[in-house]
Amino acid sequence: MPAPFLPLTRPTIDDETIAGVAEVLRSGWITSGPKVKELEAKLSAHCGGRPVRAFNSGTCTMEIALRIAGVGAGHEVITTPLSWVATSNVILAVGARPRFVEIDPVTRNIDLEKIGAAITPATRAILPVDLAGLPVDRDRLYAIARHHGLRVVEDAAQSFGSNWRGRAIGAAGDFVSFSFHPNKNITTIEGGALVLNDEREAKLAEQYRLQGVVRTGFDGMEVEVVGGKFNLTDVAARVGLGQLPHLESFNARRRELARAYFEALDQPALRALGLELPPADFSQTNWHMFQVVLPGERLAIPRAVVMEKLHAAGIGTGVHYPAIHLFAVYRRLGWNPGDLPVAERVGRDILTLPLFPAMTEADVARVAASLQTILLAHRKA
Ligand SMILES: *Cc1c(COP(=O)(O)O)cnc(C)c1O
Question: In 3-state terms, what secondary structure has residue 198?
């Protein structure tokens, strides 16, 4: 009998959480309320006591951070081309322009060495991404930001539970944005959180979160900024409260499975073929994803066919991500193929393998064996 289909990822929701959600649903208060406040307090504790506000996506937290920082028309924001397109869409959403900087082929994160040359008088902020949970070097990042007087919006959508030199991502820095989409290491179904610097910023974030409204007394209402509709529900917050206690164990399990991937894939035949593995970081990353870069030039089949063959073998995979600057919206802004060759190559050949806490070592072995068989059978002559 063939093994059941192994998805790319799958959330783990325990029975206590499901019962807790039912309780919220029966409570008479299901939208933003006490559960959101409780989740924010717990997230703040995780982030060294900094102010944290919860939202209904990770995307809106970055847009709101840019608005609070005063980034808008005529401004540029430095970011990575290898991310979920939300990272740069929010820059366009506030009326600014993304300035994509080449990635480091080893970490696959923005190449900090190359940021300096991309800074212009219009630059206001840097928006780096911790791809797959591997943290960007925070010491160098903030040295650059301080030197040039730039704000930072950390797209830490994938790095909740990662740390930089032992300090939780979110516990230091400028704005830090998290996502709790079901594919992330913990989930609120949809949702996100923004870590801010002080109560003034937190109050502004609350305004942007809900139509800009500020209430006073029983009947007072004022609107000073154009906000949106970005509030998290108590139902979703209750899911998050049930996830948080498992953060450490989920991430420990991801680490074990990542180690198993290294054992299975770090071997002569695949090394000779040029398969690229991620950095073997077992102290700082939360192993949000395990991504390989295929040796595209040396294979007779494209990535899509590798994925199709893995799918036929009962294994789900994903692409995170094609280079953003090659999407039509960004080409219309003047970006062209060849502008960022490393990001383009990685974007063409990167492949995300299944990794989630409920997986087994046998699953990892099956994925690695299938991948190896497919790659070796389709080497270019
Ligand atoms: C998931 C993700 C986002 C967006 O988060 P949503 O909660 O889906 O809005 C942004 N950036 C990166 C790198 C992500 O992985």
Answer: coil
In a domain, 160, yes or no: yes
Residue 320, ligand 1, Cβ within 6 A:
no
Measured CA distances, 33 to 150, 214, 237 (Å) = 35, 16, 9
CA distances from 357 to 9, 14, 24, 41, 156 (A): 9, 13, 26, 26, 20
Give the ligand 1 atom nearest the CA of 86: 10
Q: Does pLDDT of 88 surpass 80? A: yes
What is the tens place of the pLDDT at every residue in 274-309?
Answer: 999 999 999 999 999 999 999 999 999 999 999 999
Which residue has tokens 């939360």?
A: 286
Cα 175 to averaged position of ligand 1 atoms, centre (Å):
15
> Which residues have C-beta within 8 Å of that of residue 113, sequence separation ≥ 6?
none
Which residue from 84, 175, 289 has its CB within 8 A of the most atoms of ligand 1, so it is best to mutate?
84
* CATH code, 211: 3.40.640.10
Q: What's the CA-to-centroid distance between 79 and ligand 1, angstroms?
A: 14
Task: Note the pLDDT of residue 74.
Answer: 98
| In 115-243, alpha helices (H) | 138-148, 199-209, 234-243
Q: Per-residue confidence at 1, pLDDT binned at 50, 70, 90?
A: low
Backbone angles phi, psi at 129, to 5 degrees: -125, 135
DSSP lists the bridge partners of residue 78 as: 99, 126
Q: Count CB-CB contacts under 10 A for residue 372.
A: 17
Can you give the CATH number for the domain in which 327 is found? 3.90.1150.10
The answer to whether residue 3 is domain-embedded is: no
Range of the domain at 174: 15-245
Kindly tell me the burial class for residue 336, based on how many C-beta atoms sit within 10 Å of its own C-beta (0-12, 13-18, 19 or more).
Answer: exposed
